[in-house]
Amino acid sequence: MRIIPTLIAICLSLCTIVVSAQGISATKLDYEGAAKYSREHNGVAVVVAKGDAIVFENYTGGRDLPWILASGTKSFVGVMCAAAIDDKIVSGFDEKVSDTITEWRPDPRRSKITIRQLLSLTSGIDAGDLLSVPSYADSVSSTSNYDPGTHFEYGPVPFQVFGELMTRKLKARNETVSSYLKQRIIEPLGIKVSVWRTKDGQPLLPQGIAITAKEWIKFGLFLKDRGKWKGKQLIPARLLEELTVGSKVNPAYGLTFWLNADGIGPSGDKRRSLSGDIGRKLAAASDVYMAAGAGNQRLYVIPSEDIVIARFGAFGEYDDREFPLRLFGR
Question: pTM for the complete prediction?
Fold first, then answer.
């Protein structure tokens, strides 16, 4: 992948998610301490929900200020895929992309790529530049550099390819990616989207949505509750669970979500789960996962503790280890 040496690319380097799976419930949560740490590192908003209710809010830029999620947008793509499987638009995560993107069939590598490999960023195709995103139609011309399932490469192109796949599948239903996202995810959850940037009239899937922290929390609560919203199962839990399973190539990344495991970061750097002295105090929870974007936008989902946290930032030296340590009483 061609990494553009800009501040945005640098800030995409994620630290490991760290939260304790044991003993947290008995500890009083230090919301103010976590918010103070966030503010000191260019934080704009922190919103915490426990159970079904928001229990803490802190803002420096205004309660109703929408914020660009950047790559946090990618997580909506994984959920859209799960919904499409539930609706039998897609046969499953292991359906071959070339069943729909038929021009890939003659290519010995691209013909074998599955949707799972596409969204786990292990398809082997050139993932593209972080700041140069092709249209859905143009993305399918991306060349294959590795055999599918053998190499992790972070970038926007695979998500735009999935956009083209969905565009072709939805055409028979007289729907678009935009209308399907609204009908299946955005409107059922009551999410108010301030902006979703587009390319050639289609929503940018790797990045581009702007919403408030409280709107992002809704999405997190839906994930925490395994596809349930206000008592109704919107998407089967078994399909959403697939999104939080890492690949053999990179256990730290599922299907559009970052996981708490040893693996590879977005810049190809090694990432390790919590260890050492801090690890003995605050053991890493296997069920913690997050959506993350440039500028340190974060949506932490912690099902074992019934907690969701949305955090907005304006870059800075934010640490994904330090924030939860402050929250859970370091």
Answer: 0.90
